[in-house]
Design a protein that fits this description.
Helix content: 10-25%
Number of domains: 3
Radius of gyration: 52 Å
Structural class: alpha+beta
Oligomer: single chain
Number of strands: 13
Strand content: 25-35%
Shape: rod-shaped
Number of helices: 12
Largest sheet: 8 strands, antiparallel, barrel
Order of helices and strands: HEEEEEEEEEHHHHHHHHEHEHEHE
Strand order of the largest sheet: 1-2-3-4-5-7-8-9
Distance between the termini: 117 Å
């Protein structure tokens, strides 16, 4: 059989192997035991070489993931024929029973891959016995020793984590006397073999769970070497370490309330950054609120989601949280109103209506300070920007009305004549709302002593009460209080301010 025939046989062996095997292995730190069988072709001084059977046992250790070394021991039966006997040939047919043993080093060219080609070389010895065609030993039955130098190439295909199938083509060099002839050249033989390699024990270089991290790295990290997803976050440990830089032992690496797998595959957020969009809300909080963790301003109103939630208490999903006709950002940045309250000044008008329609101040319930709130004026048809038409006094539960025009003689509780106009309006308001009770409160400026001013303010409130009782209002609906200068509404350092502070208020009781 020729060398070409052996190569054909090896190719056939390869295509018959399970090339789709789904496992890979590293040799580093592992002992490997191999059993290989096949044929050989003896090259010698005879005219015809005949294919003979052979087998070998391999025992090696992985020094490195790409290099291993060990012992190769086998049994070979070599055969040769001579058509025309030559001088000195002991027989026209020669057979050798040989036991080769060599120390060999293997270089693995694709360590850790499912299909791993390799090359090897070694040095050793071979003992053998010669027999002729009649089975007679030549020259006797004692073993003869020769040098043995193996080289070759091969392919390992992993069928499981513990076993691979190996195909090997080798060339072995011996001395020139194995055929009992010394013709001035070395004898040798080709060998083609296939078999199985069994991996013993475990190695730090292995990736038992096929998660992209070898066992040693997993041990260093504290990850589970037989569980590809130690923390159960739907990302393989190797993917976490090499690709996402997350913690394979912690499902939520940065503690934002989302597991790393959901961040990568579902929400596309950064599993190493608690607040991916930098809006002041952690990603988990945004997901639970249904705002976009990848968008700083989900509703596009000009305010970041974090500011809306934490600072303004507005809705990050609604551009106009309170539905008052103004966007949250206009309320905050332009009008200084409350984006979470449709009627900031509680005057009965929505902030948007005040800004866009009535042109009143959404921060001031009575824009023109005429005594009637903006909402009351709009509803009754008067101008909320003109204090002159606020003459009608409207009483509402829980509201306070300043009785502008109620005046007293200096340092006395005596009503002036011009006070009658305003008091008549107050009387009409009480008669129009017979179910309402009021607290009449007197106030002074800060000129004089506190005790004096408090007594004066109380006496002035009582003077107003007396006037109303005389006009027919039940005393049971009226109570009085004197605050002196404890509750100023203006600056007491100016004449105008002191005038505003000297006042009578109706506080409508609930």
């Amino acid at each position: 059989m020729t060398t070409r025939t052996i190569l054909k046989l090896m190719f056939l062996s390869i295509i018959l192997l399970p090339l789709n095997a789904g496992f890979a292995q590293n040799s580093e730190g592992r002992w490997v035991l191999g059993f290989h069988g096949g044929g050989n072709l003896w090259i010698n001084d005879y005219s015809t070489s005949v294919v003979g059977p052979g087998g070998e046992v391999m025992f090696r250790y992985g020094i490195h993931r790409a290099l291993s070394a060990g012992l190769l021991v086998g049994y070979e039966e070599f055969k040769a024929e001579q058509d025309l006997p030559l001088s000195g040939q002991p027989s026209s047919y020669l057979k050798l029973h040989a036991i080769p043993a060599s120390f060999v080093a293997w270089a693995h060219l694709a360590a850790g891959e499912k299909v791993n080609p390799y090359i090897y070389a070694g040095i050793g010895a071979m003992i053998y016995k010669r027999l002729d065609g009649a089975g007679v030993y030549i020259p006797n039955s004692e073993f003869i020793t020769t040098i043995h130098v193996p080289v070759g190439v091969g392919l390992e295909i992993f069928a499981s984590k513990k076993a691979s199938i190996a195909v090997d083509l080798g060339f072995r060099v011996t001395d020139d006397y194995t055929d009992a002839l010394k013709a001035g050249k070395l004898d040798a033989y080709w060998t083609a073999k296939a078999g199985i390699n069994i991996y013993l024990g475990s190695s730090d270089a292995d990736d038992d769970d096929e998660d992209g991290l070898n066992n040693g790295d997993e041990a260093t990290l504290g990850a589970n070497p037989i569980n590809p997803d130690t923390d159960g976050d739907a990302l393989k440990d190797g993917e976490e370490v090499h690709q996402h830089k997350t913690n394979p032992n912690k499902a939520d690496s940065e503690g934002d309330g989302l597991n790393d797998g959901d961040e990568v595959t579902k929400y596309k957020t950064d599993p190493n950054k608690a607040d991916t969009d930098g809006d002041g809300l952690v990603d988990g909080d945004e997901v639970s609120r249904k705002s976009d963790p990848l968008k700083t301003d989900t509703d596009g109103d000009g305010l970041s989601d974090g500011d809306e939630v934490q600072k303004h208490q507005s809705d990050p999903l609604k551009a106009d949280t309170d539905g008052d006709g103004l966007t949250d950002t206009d309320e905050v940045q332009k009008h200084m109103t409350d984006p979470a309250k449709s009627d900031t000044d509680s005057d009965g008008l929505a902030d948007g209506e005040e800004v866009k329609t009535s042109r009143t101040d959404p921060l001031k319930s009575d824009t023109d300070s005429g005594g009637a709130s903006d909402g009351v004026e709009v509803k009754r048809g008067s101008n909320p920007l003109d204090p002159q038409d606020d003459a009608i006094i409207i009483l509402e539960k829980g509201k306070t009305v300043v009785l502008k025009g109620v005046n007293f003689e200096t340092k006395k509780a005596t009503l002036t004549a011009d006070s009658e106009i305003t008091l008549e309006k107050a009387l009409n308001a009480l008669n129009a709302s017979p179910d309402l009770d009021v607290l009449i409160v007197g106030h002074t400026d800060n000129v004089g002593k506190a005790d004096y001013n408090k007594d004066l303010s109380l006496r002035r409130a009582e003077a107003v009460k007396s006037w109303l009782i005389k006009k027919g209002i039940s005393k049971d609906r009226l109570t009085v209080a004197g605050k002196g200068f404890d509750e100023p509404i203006d600056d007491n350092t100016t004449t105008e301010g002191r005038l505003n502070n000297r006042r009578i208020e109706f506080r409508v009781l609930q």
